[in-house]
């Protein structure tokens, strides 16, 4: 049994050390790290916007005057909170956190390629670059197809 295990390990080490495979996995790792950074920045920005919304809500409860701009921001943020809770809660119920994050990234990119944004606006930066646009996803897929052939 040990002999077969060593052969299997040696086989996979041989595959994963091929330059083409190493480059492919390194590319996936860079993409994942970039997306993880985008999600963490989105969560931070969402927390700041939620705090501002809470301040507006306390003003409303105290019957203080609320501007039209504050009302707009409040509506938008409440919609974002509802949208994110509908997305994050089911995905994060997966027992392994890494798998839940990976599922969220895959689901986001699949829907983004169809021009559907499922996450709140703070997760999509103003300057659209790399994989954050459907065009960027299509370009990346074309590059990967050339790489795999």
Brief summary:
The chain is built from five helices and no strands.
Kindly describe this structure:
The chain is mainly alpha-helical. It has one domain. It is built from five helices and no strands. It has helices spanning about 1-15, 20-60, 70-90, 95-110, 135-149. Helix 3 (about 70-90) packs across helix 4. It is elongated, with a radius of gyration of 21 Å.
What is the element layout, followed by pairings?
Blueprint lengths: L1 H15 L2 H43 L6 H25 L4 H16 L21 H15 L1
Helix pairs in contact: 2-3, 3-4
Average pLDDT score: 78
Q: What is the quaternary state of this protein?
A: single chain
Shape: elongated
Percent helix range? over 70%
Q: Report the order of strands and helices.
A: HHHHH
Would you tell me the structural class of the helices and strands? mainly alpha
Number of strands: 0
Question: What Rg is obtained from the alpha carbons, in whole angstroms?
Answer: 21 Å
Distinct helical segment count = 5
Distance between the termini: 36 Å
- Total discrete domains: 1
Name the descriptors:
single chain; mainly alpha; 149 residues; 77% helix
């Amino acid at each position: 049994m040990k002999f077969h295990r060593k052969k299997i390990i040696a086989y996979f080490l041989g595959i994963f050390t091929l330059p083409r495979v190493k480059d492919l996995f390194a590319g996936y790792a860079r993409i994942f790290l970039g997306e993880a950074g985008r999600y963490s920045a989105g969560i931070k920005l969402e927390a700041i916007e939620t705090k501002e919304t809470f301040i507006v809500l306390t003003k409303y409860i105290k019957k203080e005057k609320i501007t039209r701009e504050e009302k707009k921001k409040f509506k938008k943020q409440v919609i974002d909170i509802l949208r994110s809770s509908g997305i994050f809660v089911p995905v994060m119920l997966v027992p392994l956190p890494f798998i839940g994050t990976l599922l969220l990234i895959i689901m986001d990119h699949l829907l983004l390629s169809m021009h559907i944004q499922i996450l709140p606006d703070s997760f999509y930066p103003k300057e659209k670059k790399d994989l954050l646009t459907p065009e960027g996803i299509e370009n990346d897929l074309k590059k990967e197809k050339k790489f795999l052939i």
